[in-house]
Amino acid sequence: MKRPKKLVRDIVYLLTRLTAFVISLTPSWFHSIFSRFLGNFAYLSLAGSRKRVLFNLRIALGKEKSRSELSRIAKKQFAYIYLGFCETVKAMKWSKEEFSKSIKIEGEEYLKEALAKGKGVVGVSAHFGNFPLMVAGLTFAGYPVNTMIREQSNQGMEKFFQEIRRKIKMAWIPKHPLSVSLKNSMKWLKKNGLFCILMDQHSGKGVKVNFFGHPVLAAIGAATFARRMGSVALPIFSLKNPDGTYRIIIKEPVKLSKTDDVRKDIADNTACFMKIIESFVRQYPEQWFGWLHRRFR
To answer: Considering all CA atoms of the chain, what is the largest pairwise distance in Å, rounded to the nearest integer?
Structure first.
């Protein structure tokens, strides 16, 4: 079984590299058409992914939206995934001026005020818009930004994604080994950096919170770092605009609970973070890639 699996991984890697090469040679208007085509193809052909997305959508938004509306959101989400890949590949050759033109920051004053406190900033974030371009955009704007990323099991794909991150000046800390990544993350915050954490996926070691009225397990990393390091917690999200540009939305600092009960504080703060993420998902459901994951179990 090992050989067929390796063959599949090699084919996926080669197809991805070929697609990236084609993207690098084609104009932006083509990427939108190409992404819609691939998104519709994926929606129709990847039955398992389609069923998972629609299952999650029905649980979260089924009482508010019709089946046709949920189907439309699912198709748009698939297209956004491919479009995000296209734009990230193109960004490998962007200049600082192109980043500034393509990515605008809203609520930048909150970030400046938080960094002025000197204890680091925990960016509460999720798989919205284009997370790599969000980190890169903040970096090109002059902010010390880092994040934690889980390595791909496909070594070829992992090397390719690392190449993309380096080209767009995106700093990251490998998730494994976990003890090392946690130590490096705290060092970054201690140096008064911004550490963005994606916390919208299932976490088996997380705490139970309500998400769209359903109990889910949420990661406690953001709440734990903010508590331990005394850092400000800022909601930070990336969203795509109708004109093809992106905006980084930074919201006001979250008022964190801090009592003698550390576990309860972490649970309460995590629940607060997830409510903020839920509010963004409700506003921009087609731009949240969490529908692809087993969020509701």
So the answer is: 58
